[in-house]
Amino acid sequence: MTDVSERPVAARLGAVRERIAAAARAAGRDPAEIRLVGVSKRQPVAAIRAAIDAGLADLGENFVQEAVAKMDALGPVLGTVPGTVPRTGPKWHFIGALQSNKTAVAAARFDWVQSVDRLKLAERLSRQRPAELPPLNVCLQVHIGAEASKAGVPVAEAAALAHQVAGLPQLRLRGLMAVPPPETDPARQRAWCRQLAELFRALQHDGLALDTLSMGMSDDLEAAIAEGATMVRIGTAVFGPRPAGPI
Ligand SMILES: *Cc1c(COP(=O)(O)O)cnc(C)c1O
């Protein structure tokens, strides 16, 4: 028996995959190069389960406590043990602001942390990543745009931080992530994405083995893919509007 509430997520997921494929084709790229992370912050477990059943392999979460509660709720369904990184089922990506007092839990429970923006955070994650797990995949979050308050390492400091993070034993530096300022004009969306793509290529040229350019959300995934994104993080377009209030 299928729950009617599960249908919309599967249908939305299909539509997002088509948008990704169309954007890739328009850019002369192979759609298989682009990894879709479904951003499930504030979304209920039932919606996440529906997305997993529909084939979603990567989930993004912004709050450690909320994410761990969902992993534990989904764990039995996926045949994994609560308290450990899931052996099967989706990969979990932490994409929110990470406080120092949450790094131990993040290091133990997530497969990726995409929001590393300072050395201290990276050092804690490396030290706290359990030795029996593979190195934690990380991206540097880069501050793209004008607002001084936004998270992320400034563009001018990103190369130095990248080289430091790349040397930490229990981390694997995979690439860069950004949340550019919201824009409706596709040309302006592309201009922000291009800044991150240029930095990404410069770091590769510098000898860092990076394979992940994480940019593109529900409203700008076409622009991000046109500029070379290898990973898009899609919330609203996959799960619908985020429910208000505490989860
Ligand atoms: C919420 C969020 C997303 C997804 O945003 P949508 O506009 O809902 O697709 C992607 N990345 C980060 C870092 C987010 O916080």
Helix content: 40-55%
How confident overall, as mean pLDDT? 92
User: What is the correct CATH architecture?
Assistant: Alpha-Beta Barrel
User: Strand percentage, roughly?
Assistant: 15-25%
Quote the distance from N terminus to C terminus: 26 Å
Domain count: the total is 1
Large-scale geometry: globular
Structural class by secondary-structure content: alpha/beta
The largest β sheet comes out as: 9 strands, parallel
Low-confidence stretches: 1-6
Any idea what the radius of gyration is?
17 Å
Give an account of the 3D structure.
This protein is of the alpha/beta class and about 250 residues long. The chain has one domain (about 5-240): Alanine racemase (TIM Barrel). It contains nine helices and nine strands. The protein has helices spanning about 5-25, 45-55, 65-80, 105-110, 120-130, 155-165, 185-205, 220-225, 235-240; strands at about 35-40, 60, 90-95, 110-115, 135-145, 155, 170-175, 210-215, 230-235. Strands 1, 2, 3, 4, 5, 6, 7, 8 and 9 form a nine-stranded parallel beta sheet that branches. Strand 1, helix 2 (about 45-55) and strand 2 (about 60) form a beta-alpha-beta unit. Helix 1 (about 5-25) packs across helix 2 and helix 4 (about 105-110) crosses helix 5. The longest helix has 21 residues, at about 5-25. The chain is globular. The structure holds pyridoxal-5'-phosphate. Pyridoxal-5'-phosphate binds near residues 41, 95, 179 and 217.
